[in-house]
TrEMBL record:
Highest taxon listed in the record's lineage: Eukaryota
GO MF term set: S-adenosylmethionine-dependent methyltransferase activity
Record-linked InterPro entries: Arsenite_MeTrfase-like, Methyltransf_11, SAM-dependent_MTases_sf
Gene3D superfamilies in the record: Vaccinia Virus protein VP39 (3.40.50.150)
Protein's recorded name: Methyltransferase type 11 domain-containing protein
Domain Methyltransferase type, first and last residues per copy: 162-249
Organism: Albula goreensis
Length: 304
């Protein structure tokens, strides 16, 4: 049943409800968690199972000792910030960590006082809901297409693409040997190898892969892991190789925001000669944990 048909059916049903009962029914529709059962699908269950497997292999913060630069940059933020991987930990999982005193949502403004403020959370992965939004609301039908995830990390984009899209091939390029092995473990366990490939490499050594990609995903991929000059060099390399006309580029945050932070350095790319940004409808309800602000960080571009 499509949207308009469903809407008409609901309006017809509401027209038959006793007027005195209608406000209560509307309130139930707006706030009931029972309706969230409609958003639980087999794909989500599988992704949650994968997240559980990965949590067992990683520390709570899901950061590796080799990621010292990212750890340092996180600690240097003006607002105290911790890394909470959104794929591994949804809101319920974060609540459980807090209950177990393994994580806090707040920090003390003055030692010994009761004055607190919210901690900042940062993630280098899409959440399960964001993956669903990406493949069902952002990207078109990917039948026969090749998607490349730059810095695939835990592989969330690849698993989401395998379950929520018809992409022919999903390739993750990951420079960390540890994360590469974790992804390969999941690919083997869940029999994804017919469509998912993991490449242990620096993306700047994968020109042919990017040149032939139909979709390239870059989620928070350089800012925390490279110094400014290295970021600029990497972006120049990306812009020189993601040139397939009509190819799509998904970024978090927007390229404009990323380049604005690099303006003090020379050689930032003029994206107007390379890409056009495509409008997205972020006003989508995906369940009670829908984070519109997080969805608004997802941007889509088309190669000119």
């Amino acid at each position: 049943m499509d949207f308009l048909t469903a809407k008409n059916e609901i309006m017809h049903l509401l027209s038959r409800v006793d007027v005195a009962e209608l406000p209560q029914l509307i309130q139930w529709i707006k706030n009931s968690e029972e309706l969230d059962d409609c958003f639980v699908d087999n794909e989500k269950v599988i992704l949650q199972s994968i997240a559980e497997d990965l949590r067992a292999c990683l520390p709570v913060e899901a950061m590796l000792p080799s990621e010292s630069l990212a750890i340092d940059k996180t600690q240097q933020k003006l607002k105290p910030t911790v890394h909470v991987d959104a794929f591994l930990y949804d809101e319920d999982a974060v609540d459980s960590l807090c209950d177990e005193s393994k994580l806090s949502r707040y920090y003390c403004l003055h030692c010994g006082s009761q004055r607190t403020a919210p901690l900042g959370f940062i993630s280098h992965s899409f959440s399960v809901l964001e993956l669903r939004f990406l493949f069902q609301n952002v990207l078109p039908d990917l039948s026969g297409k090749v998607l490349v995830d730059v810095g695939s990390r835990l592989g969330a984009v690849l698993y989401g693409g395998c379950l929520y899209s018809s992409a022919a091939q999903l390739v993750g390029v990951e420079i960390s040997a540890e994360f590469t092995e974790l992804q390969k473990m999941i690919v083997e366990k869940y029999s994804f190898s017919d469509r998912i490939q993991i490449v242990h490499s620096d993306i700047c050594a994968q020109a042919s892969l990017l040149q032939n990609a139909d979709v390239v995903v870059m989620n928070n991929v350089f800012e925390y892991f490279l110094e400014s000059n290295d970021q600029i060099r990497a972006w120049h390399w990306i812009s020189q190789n993601v040139r397939k006309k009509g190819a799509l580029l998904v970024t978090v945050p927007s390229i404009q925001e990323t380049f604005a932070t690099l303006q003090q350095s020379n050689g930032v790319i003029d994206i107007r000669q390379w890409l056009e940004e495509l409008p997205l409808d972020h006003n989508v309800y995906l369940g009670r944990d829908t984070d519109t602000e997080a969805l608004q960080q997802i941007h889509l571009y088309r190669v000119l």
